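Project standup — Tuesday

K.O.: blocked on the structure for the chain from last sprint. Re-posting the sequence here as requested.
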Amino acid sequence: MSTLGIDIGGSTTVAVVLERGRVLGTQQLPTEPGEAVVATAVTAARRVLTATGIATAALEGVGLGVPGIVDADRSRVRSAVNLGIDSLDIGAAVAGGLGVPVTVDNDVRVSVLGARHLMGEPAGALAFVGLGTGIAAGVAYGDRVLRGESGVAGEIGHIPIPGAGERCRCGQHGCLETVAAGWALAQRWGGPTPAAGMLAAAERGDERGVRDWQAFTGGLAHAIRSLVLTTGVDTVLIGGGVSGLGAPLAEGIGAQLRTWASASPLLAALDVPSRIRLLPVGAQAGAVGAALLGATVARHAAAD
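H.V.: unblocked you, prediction finished:
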Protein backbone atom coordinates (compact mmCIF):
# COMPACT_ATOMS: atom_id res chain seq x y z
CA MET A 1 0.00 0.00 0.00
CA SER A 2 1.07 3.59 -0.65
CA THR A 3 0.97 6.42 1.86
CA LEU A 4 1.39 10.17 1.40
CA GLY A 5 3.31 12.42 3.77
CA ILE A 6 3.50 16.23 3.70
CA ASP A 7 5.95 18.29 5.74
CA ILE A 8 5.32 22.04 5.91
CA GLY A 9 8.44 23.91 6.97
CA GLY A 10 9.12 27.59 7.36
CA SER A 11 11.05 27.65 4.08
CA THR A 12 9.98 24.59 2.09
CA THR A 13 7.08 22.17 1.84
CA VAL A 14 7.91 18.55 0.97
CA ALA A 15 5.57 15.77 -0.09
CA VAL A 16 6.60 12.12 -0.38
CA VAL A 17 4.95 8.87 -1.34
CA LEU A 18 6.00 5.76 0.57
CA GLU A 19 5.55 2.30 -0.91
CA ARG A 20 6.11 -0.49 1.65
CA GLY A 21 8.30 1.86 3.69
CA ARG A 22 10.41 2.95 0.72
CA VAL A 23 10.40 6.49 -0.69
CA LEU A 24 8.81 6.21 -4.12
CA GLY A 25 8.81 9.91 -5.01
CA THR A 26 9.40 13.40 -3.61
CA GLN A 27 8.25 16.92 -4.50
CA GLN A 28 9.40 20.17 -2.89
CA LEU A 29 8.04 23.71 -3.12
CA PRO A 30 8.79 27.02 -1.38
CA THR A 31 6.37 27.52 1.52
CA GLU A 32 3.94 30.40 1.16
CA PRO A 33 3.15 31.98 4.56
CA GLY A 34 -0.23 32.28 6.23
CA GLU A 35 -3.23 30.36 4.94
CA ALA A 36 -1.47 30.01 1.58
CA VAL A 37 0.37 27.05 3.14
CA VAL A 38 -2.71 24.99 2.31
CA ALA A 39 -2.43 25.58 -1.44
CA THR A 40 1.30 24.85 -1.32
CA ALA A 41 0.73 21.56 0.51
CA VAL A 42 -2.02 20.46 -1.87
CA THR A 43 0.05 21.34 -4.94
CA ALA A 44 3.11 19.47 -3.68
CA ALA A 45 0.95 16.45 -2.85
CA ARG A 46 -0.75 16.39 -6.24
CA ARG A 47 2.56 16.68 -8.05
CA VAL A 48 4.18 13.76 -6.23
CA LEU A 49 1.09 11.61 -6.76
CA THR A 50 1.14 12.43 -10.49
CA ALA A 51 4.87 11.73 -10.73
CA THR A 52 4.53 8.34 -9.04
CA GLY A 53 1.31 7.38 -10.78
CA ILE A 54 -0.56 6.86 -7.52
CA ALA A 55 -4.27 7.69 -7.44
CA THR A 56 -5.54 9.56 -4.40
CA ALA A 57 -8.23 6.93 -3.85
CA ALA A 58 -5.52 4.23 -3.65
CA LEU A 59 -3.74 5.83 -0.69
CA GLU A 60 -3.78 3.94 2.58
CA GLY A 61 -3.42 7.14 4.57
CA VAL A 62 -2.21 10.75 4.51
CA GLY A 63 -0.25 12.51 7.22
CA LEU A 64 0.88 16.12 7.55
CA GLY A 65 3.53 17.68 9.77
CA VAL A 66 3.41 21.38 10.62
CA PRO A 67 5.31 23.58 13.10
CA GLY A 68 3.14 24.86 15.94
CA ILE A 69 0.75 23.49 18.55
CA VAL A 70 -1.51 20.82 17.08
CA ASP A 71 -4.82 20.29 18.88
CA ALA A 72 -6.01 16.91 20.14
CA ASP A 73 -8.27 16.62 17.06
CA ARG A 74 -5.10 16.16 14.95
CA SER A 75 -6.37 18.79 12.52
CA ARG A 76 -6.08 22.36 13.86
CA VAL A 77 -2.73 24.09 14.38
CA ARG A 78 -2.19 27.10 16.62
CA SER A 79 0.72 29.48 17.25
CA ALA A 80 2.67 28.47 14.15
CA VAL A 81 4.71 31.66 14.46
CA ASN A 82 7.24 30.77 11.75
CA LEU A 83 4.38 30.32 9.25
CA GLY A 84 2.48 33.44 10.26
CA ILE A 85 -0.49 31.36 11.48
CA ASP A 86 -2.39 32.07 14.68
CA SER A 87 -5.01 29.33 14.27
CA LEU A 88 -5.96 27.25 11.24
CA ASP A 89 -7.83 23.98 10.71
CA ILE A 90 -5.15 22.88 8.31
CA GLY A 91 -6.09 19.21 8.32
CA ALA A 92 -9.63 19.90 7.10
CA ALA A 93 -8.38 22.44 4.55
CA VAL A 94 -5.79 20.10 2.99
CA ALA A 95 -8.23 17.19 3.12
CA GLY A 96 -10.72 19.32 1.21
CA GLY A 97 -8.13 20.03 -1.47
CA LEU A 98 -7.11 16.39 -1.86
CA GLY A 99 -10.43 14.68 -1.26
CA VAL A 100 -9.07 12.28 1.40
CA PRO A 101 -8.77 12.46 5.22
CA VAL A 102 -5.55 13.99 6.57
CA THR A 103 -4.02 13.43 10.01
CA VAL A 104 -1.93 16.32 11.38
CA ASP A 105 0.76 16.46 14.03
CA ASN A 106 3.63 18.75 14.97
CA ASP A 107 6.45 18.54 12.44
CA VAL A 108 9.16 17.33 14.83
CA ARG A 109 6.89 14.70 16.35
CA VAL A 110 6.44 13.15 12.92
CA SER A 111 10.11 13.76 12.14
CA VAL A 112 11.28 11.59 15.03
CA LEU A 113 9.40 8.67 13.46
CA GLY A 114 10.77 9.45 10.01
CA ALA A 115 14.34 9.91 11.23
CA ARG A 116 14.29 6.60 13.08
CA HIS A 117 12.92 4.89 9.96
CA LEU A 118 15.52 6.44 7.64
CA MET A 119 18.47 5.83 9.99
CA GLY A 120 17.42 2.28 10.88
CA GLU A 121 17.58 3.12 14.57
CA PRO A 122 16.13 0.57 17.01
CA ALA A 123 12.82 1.45 18.63
CA GLY A 124 14.36 2.65 21.89
CA ALA A 125 14.28 6.07 23.51
CA LEU A 126 15.39 8.68 21.00
CA ALA A 127 14.95 12.34 20.12
CA PHE A 128 14.96 14.24 16.85
CA VAL A 129 16.15 17.85 16.93
CA GLY A 130 15.02 19.82 13.90
CA LEU A 131 17.23 22.77 12.96
CA GLY A 132 15.44 24.81 10.33
CA THR A 133 13.59 28.11 10.21
CA GLY A 134 12.64 27.25 13.80
CA ILE A 135 13.95 24.71 16.32
CA ALA A 136 12.06 21.97 18.15
CA ALA A 137 12.51 18.38 19.30
CA GLY A 138 10.47 15.21 19.00
CA VAL A 139 10.88 12.47 21.59
CA ALA A 140 9.87 8.84 21.05
CA TYR A 141 9.83 5.91 23.44
CA GLY A 142 9.40 2.98 21.10
CA ASP A 143 6.38 3.80 18.94
CA ARG A 144 4.98 6.28 21.47
CA VAL A 145 5.76 9.92 20.67
CA LEU A 146 5.64 12.40 23.53
CA ARG A 147 2.96 15.07 22.95
CA GLY A 148 2.10 16.51 26.34
CA GLU A 149 -1.43 17.42 27.43
CA SER A 150 -1.42 20.68 25.44
CA GLY A 151 0.69 19.45 22.53
CA VAL A 152 3.77 21.56 23.26
CA ALA A 153 6.21 18.82 24.29
CA GLY A 154 9.62 19.31 22.66
CA GLU A 155 9.50 23.08 22.03
CA ILE A 156 13.16 23.44 22.98
CA GLY A 157 13.55 26.38 20.60
CA HIS A 158 11.79 28.49 23.21
CA ILE A 159 13.91 27.46 26.19
CA PRO A 160 15.85 30.51 27.47
CA ILE A 161 19.60 30.16 26.90
CA PRO A 162 22.25 31.60 29.27
CA GLY A 163 23.72 34.79 27.79
CA ALA A 164 20.97 35.29 25.21
CA GLY A 165 18.64 38.23 25.60
CA GLU A 166 17.09 39.18 22.26
CA ARG A 167 13.34 39.12 21.79
CA CYS A 168 12.06 35.95 20.16
CA ARG A 169 9.21 35.68 17.67
CA CYS A 170 7.25 33.90 20.42
CA GLY A 171 7.36 37.01 22.61
CA GLN A 172 9.90 35.78 25.15
CA HIS A 173 13.48 36.99 25.46
CA GLY A 174 16.63 34.88 25.13
CA CYS A 175 15.14 31.77 23.51
CA LEU A 176 17.40 29.25 21.79
CA GLU A 177 15.86 30.27 18.47
CA THR A 178 17.29 33.80 18.83
CA VAL A 179 20.84 32.40 18.54
CA ALA A 180 20.40 29.23 16.49
CA ALA A 181 17.23 29.23 14.35
CA GLY A 182 17.37 29.81 10.62
CA TRP A 183 15.28 32.99 10.88
CA ALA A 184 17.69 34.51 13.42
CA LEU A 185 20.79 33.54 11.42
CA ALA A 186 19.24 35.07 8.29
CA GLN A 187 18.73 38.36 10.12
CA ARG A 188 22.39 38.43 11.18
CA TRP A 189 24.14 36.98 8.16
CA GLY A 190 21.78 37.27 5.19
CA GLY A 191 22.42 35.48 1.93
CA PRO A 192 21.00 32.15 0.74
CA THR A 193 22.96 30.09 3.33
CA PRO A 194 23.41 32.25 6.45
CA ALA A 195 24.55 29.37 8.67
CA ALA A 196 27.31 28.46 6.22
CA GLY A 197 28.29 32.14 6.04
CA MET A 198 28.58 32.30 9.82
CA LEU A 199 30.71 29.15 9.91
CA ALA A 200 33.03 30.43 7.16
CA ALA A 201 33.51 33.69 9.04
CA ALA A 202 34.30 31.83 12.26
CA GLU A 203 36.80 29.57 10.51
CA ARG A 204 38.73 32.55 9.15
CA GLY A 205 38.84 34.13 12.62
CA ASP A 206 36.31 36.91 12.08
CA GLU A 207 35.39 38.24 15.55
CA ARG A 208 31.66 38.41 14.90
CA GLY A 209 31.68 34.99 13.23
CA VAL A 210 33.50 33.38 16.15
CA ARG A 211 31.14 35.01 18.67
CA ASP A 212 27.99 33.96 16.83
CA TRP A 213 29.31 30.45 16.17
CA GLN A 214 30.06 29.95 19.85
CA ALA A 215 26.60 31.23 20.80
CA PHE A 216 25.04 28.96 18.16
CA THR A 217 26.82 25.73 19.13
CA GLY A 218 26.74 26.57 22.83
CA GLY A 219 22.99 27.19 22.74
CA LEU A 220 22.37 23.90 20.95
CA ALA A 221 24.63 22.06 23.40
CA HIS A 222 22.65 23.56 26.29
CA ALA A 223 19.36 22.40 24.77
CA ILE A 224 20.64 18.89 23.94
CA ARG A 225 22.08 18.50 27.44
CA SER A 226 18.70 19.52 28.90
CA LEU A 227 16.91 17.13 26.54
CA VAL A 228 19.03 14.14 27.58
CA LEU A 229 18.79 14.97 31.28
CA THR A 230 15.02 15.39 31.24
CA THR A 231 13.97 12.61 28.86
CA GLY A 232 16.75 10.02 29.16
CA VAL A 233 16.98 9.42 25.41
CA ASP A 234 19.77 7.16 24.21
CA THR A 235 20.11 8.80 20.79
CA VAL A 236 19.74 12.38 19.56
CA LEU A 237 19.22 12.63 15.80
CA ILE A 238 19.84 16.11 14.34
CA GLY A 239 18.24 17.10 11.04
CA GLY A 240 16.73 20.05 9.20
CA GLY A 241 18.30 22.51 6.79
CA VAL A 242 20.80 24.01 9.23
CA SER A 243 22.12 20.54 10.07
CA GLY A 244 23.68 20.59 6.59
CA LEU A 245 26.70 22.22 8.26
CA GLY A 246 27.76 18.64 8.95
CA ALA A 247 30.84 17.64 10.92
CA PRO A 248 31.71 21.16 12.18
CA LEU A 249 28.24 21.36 13.75
CA ALA A 250 28.60 18.04 15.60
CA GLU A 251 32.17 18.92 16.62
CA GLY A 252 31.16 22.35 17.91
CA ILE A 253 28.29 20.98 20.00
CA GLY A 254 30.42 18.08 21.21
CA ALA A 255 33.29 20.35 22.26
CA GLN A 256 31.01 22.38 24.53
CA LEU A 257 29.44 19.24 26.00
CA ARG A 258 32.88 17.77 26.72
CA THR A 259 33.97 20.99 28.43
CA TRP A 260 31.00 20.76 30.80
CA ALA A 261 31.61 17.03 31.32
CA SER A 262 35.20 17.69 32.39
CA ALA A 263 33.83 19.40 35.52
CA SER A 264 30.85 17.09 36.10
CA PRO A 265 31.05 13.35 36.87
CA LEU A 266 27.35 13.08 36.03
CA LEU A 267 27.76 14.53 32.52
CA ALA A 268 30.95 12.55 32.01
CA ALA A 269 29.08 9.33 32.81
CA LEU A 270 26.24 10.24 30.46
CA ASP A 271 28.68 10.90 27.58
CA VAL A 272 26.14 13.02 25.70
CA PRO A 273 28.35 13.63 22.60
CA SER A 274 28.35 9.89 21.84
CA ARG A 275 24.54 9.96 21.59
CA ILE A 276 24.44 12.54 18.79
CA ARG A 277 23.91 11.55 15.13
CA LEU A 278 23.47 13.81 12.09
CA LEU A 279 20.92 12.86 9.44
CA PRO A 280 22.28 12.73 5.88
CA VAL A 281 21.82 15.92 3.87
CA GLY A 282 18.52 15.82 2.03
CA ALA A 283 16.90 13.23 4.30
CA GLN A 284 13.20 14.10 4.40
CA ALA A 285 12.46 12.90 7.92
CA GLY A 286 9.39 15.12 8.35
CA ALA A 287 7.57 14.02 5.21
CA VAL A 288 8.51 10.36 5.72
CA GLY A 289 7.33 10.50 9.32
CA ALA A 290 4.08 12.16 8.26
CA ALA A 291 3.46 9.31 5.81
CA LEU A 292 4.12 6.77 8.57
CA LEU A 293 1.69 8.64 10.84
CA GLY A 294 -1.00 8.63 8.16
CA ALA A 295 -0.59 4.89 7.62
CA THR A 296 -0.70 4.12 11.36
CA VAL A 297 -3.86 6.16 11.95
CA ALA A 298 -5.55 4.57 8.93
CA ARG A 299 -4.73 1.05 10.16
CA HIS A 300 -6.04 1.78 13.63
CA ALA A 301 -9.23 3.21 12.16
CA ALA A 302 -9.71 0.12 9.97
CA ALA A 303 -9.22 -2.15 12.98
CA ASP A 304 -11.84 -0.37 15.13
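K.O.: great, moving the ticket to review. The chain has a mean pLDDT of 94. The two ends are 19 Å apart (CA to CA).
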